[in-house]
Amino acid sequence: IKIIFKRKRNIGKNAHPYYRTFLDRIAKNPSFVLIDSDISAIRVIEKCSAVISMPFTSTAILAKEMGKPSIYYDSKGIIQKDDRASHGTTVFSGKEELKIWIDHLVQNERISKEND
Question: Any bridge partners for residue 91, and if so which?
């Protein structure tokens, strides 16, 4: 799995130091790719198999409209599953729910490739 991370905008030095350190650390992982914030979200979504958005952003809705599996991820578990801001997009809370969804996607991708 390759994780593509696109921020909405580049806030540079205004980002919290822990956040900058976190991004610097995970950017060293070859499975993780940071995308410039100036690149169109649609261009990124077109190249992806699935989309995970956090917090509520239009990318989840765009991905659904483009036929891509799309969810909102709430790492803290504070968002209600039926929150109106989700516009009907599934909200997953916590690592376990996210892991189950990703495992399901990977399994479906394997089956699809085997049937090609």
Answer: 72
